Amino acid sequence: NADSAMHQAKEKGRNTYHFFTPDLDATAQAKRAIERDLRHAIKTFDEFHIVYQPIVDLETGQMKSAEALIRWHSAERGLVSPDQFIPLAERNHLILPIGEWVLETACREIKSWSEQSQTPFRVSINLSSRQFKEDNLPEVIKGVLDRTGFNPNQLSLEITETLMMENLDEALKMLHELKAMGVRLSIDDFGTGYSSLNYLKRFPLDTLKIDRMFVRDVTTNPEDAAVVAAILTMAHSMGLEVVGEGIETKDHNDFLFAKGCQLGQGYYFSRPLRIDEFNLFAERSEYEGIS
Ligand code: C2E
Ligand code: MG
Ligand code: MG
Ligand code: MG
């Protein structure tokens, strides 16, 4: 049943914590060095760009929207993964200028692309917990929308469930404020956190993204299959749109679609693409605009 499947999901989330016994000094030093380079890099943002990963209709293969993902190509270090520098940037507040840069750049690039192709396009942008906890987040987003002329209903903000559960009342208030601005709200990496279904109902969400951890073995692991089915049942009863993350094979695609998942994202369709490659992908996939 749904509750025991969700319980398994949580257990699985918990099992992903790894315990290291690192040489703390070396680790701390390495982090400080990355932080120093990061501070330098955000003076100009020259070393950053955004890649866009298509979000696709599982039935037709048509692109419906895309997720913006930041890339840092450091002169010193080469390509640094966001999983490495975003958590660091969160701890020292550098995420605030970085997050605003992502919002502004993605809105500008997608607006320009929408105008060229004359099709309104929706983009999803990740918010970090630090950004979300800033009281002025709505003003920051409004500023970006004003400066870029981007339509709020073309913007979807991705927030993780752990973030929402940390401070429920504050989170609810913020979500309602954002919603009132006309933007869409997605819950990212769903299944890895600790949300209770009761709480989830209270959030003004539009979209739920199933974490790729549950998609990976969904066709072979009955527990994962049960979790995914339970998430889909619950999401549909709440009227949420669902995106399966990490779709890498046709089997993933077909399985999720058979269980009622409409949308997916993953290497099976496309890796995250630079804006010029993304334009080509969109042309090929006969993108028809948001419904
Ligand atoms: P996320 O938001 O869950 O993004 C999805 C991640 O899964 C991306 O990793 C994407 O490249 C990867 N992915 C997509 N399809 C597949 C697939 O089929 N198989 C596998 N194995 N992976 C797939 P990426 O770009 O390295 O980003 C990692 C995380 O870093 C993101 O997870 C997000 O939490 C964070 N992040 C990325 N860009 C930003 C940003 O601009 N702002 C913030 N706050 N966080 C970001
Ligand atoms: Mg995301
Ligand atoms: Mg995700
Ligand atoms: Mg993630």
Task: Offer a few descriptive terms.
about 290 residues; alpha/beta; eight-stranded mixed barrel; about 50% helix; about 20% strand; binds ligand C2E; binds magnesium ion
In short:
The protein has 291 residues and is of the alpha/beta class.
Walk me through this protein's architecture.
The longest helix is centred in the middle third of the chain and has 23 residues, at 95-117. The mean pLDDT is 90. Helix 1 (2-15) packs across helix 11 and helix 4 runs parallel beside helix 6. It is built from 13 helices and 10 strands. Strands 1-2-4-5-6-7-8-9 form an 8-stranded mixed barrel, surrounded by 5 helices. With 291 residues, it is α/β, with parallel strands linked by helices. The radius of gyration is 19 Å and the shape is globular. It has helices spanning 2-15, 24-41, 82-91, 95-117, 129-133, 137-148, 161-166, 168-180, 197-202, 212-216, 222-237, 250-258, 275-284; strands spanning 48-57, 63-74, 78-80, 123-126, 155-160, 184-190, 207-210, 241-244, 263-264, 273-274. It starts with a helix and ends in a 7-residue tail after the last helix. The structure holds ligand C2E and magnesium ion (3 copies). One magnesium ion binds at residues 67, 126, 158, 188.
Topology order in helix (H) and strand (E) letters: HHEEEHHEHHEHHEHEHHEHEEH
- Quickly give the structural class: alpha/beta
Biggest sheet layout: 8 strands, mixed, barrel
**Overall pLDDT confidence:** 90
Taking the alpha carbons of the first and last residues, their distance comes to 33 Å
Q: Considering DSSP H and I runs of 4 or more, what fraction of the residues is helical? A: 40-55%
> Low-confidence stretches at least 5 residues in length (pLDDT < 50)?
none
Number of strands: 10
Numbering strands along the chain, what is their spatial order in the largest sheet? 1-2-4-5-6-7-8-9
The total count of helices amounts to 13
Radius of gyration: 19 Å
**Small molecules bound in the structure, each named once:** ligand C2E, magnesium ion
Report the portion of residues in β strands: 15-25%
Protein name: Diguanylate cyclase
Organism: Terasakiella brassicae
